[in-house]
């Protein structure tokens, strides 16, 4: 276990949410190994760390113990192969409080195609999606990991998604999309318009880029 993990584990977890401006985007930049090189003001505000405490630290400084390992396994498999990945993540602030986000990544490569930096952007996730769908799934994955390891939480996740005939990203996209549709005053209009919206377009709109 490295120093940062020890630091992370020393934070007493508090079952309370960080109060933050959910219209903001939480952004960070890392090197190819996930070491933080830059964090925007919102990242600093929400995580509760000072800039000097974040720079040079591994990104797992904000890892929450309620997060199943398998989600990060899939996230890193995608990032290392140069692919964006949208994950719903519970993060741990310095105060011990939590904040839920959905991720969006950009990957910077050098002239030889070698990954040099990752840019991570995070937005808030509707509470209903978290409470009704993500918490029960992650709880199950965590229990499986504790009992039988990540090999089997991954198998469970694969089975869960196979049953739904979705990838993880398709599944969370649908959860957020269905929630948005239910919220919209013009739901029929939005539904018709967005029925054609592809996954890439959906997340581009969500992240305003
Ligand atoms: C650009 C970037 C952003 C990341 N953002 C987060 C994040 O918000 N929360 C998080 O727990 N892990 C994030 N990670 C993943 C961490 O590097 C790490 O894999 C994760 O915290 C799990 O810790 P572990 O790999 O030590 O098990 C990010 C990685 C990259 C490259």
UniProtKB/TrEMBL annotation:
Family matches, as PROSITE patterns: PAS (PS50112)
Span of domain PAS: 31-82
Recorded superkingdom: Bacteria
CDD domains on file: PAS (cd00130)
Gene3D superfamilies tied to this protein: PAS domain (3.30.450.20)
Official protein name in the record: PAS domain S-box protein
Protein source organism: Flavobacterium pectinovorum
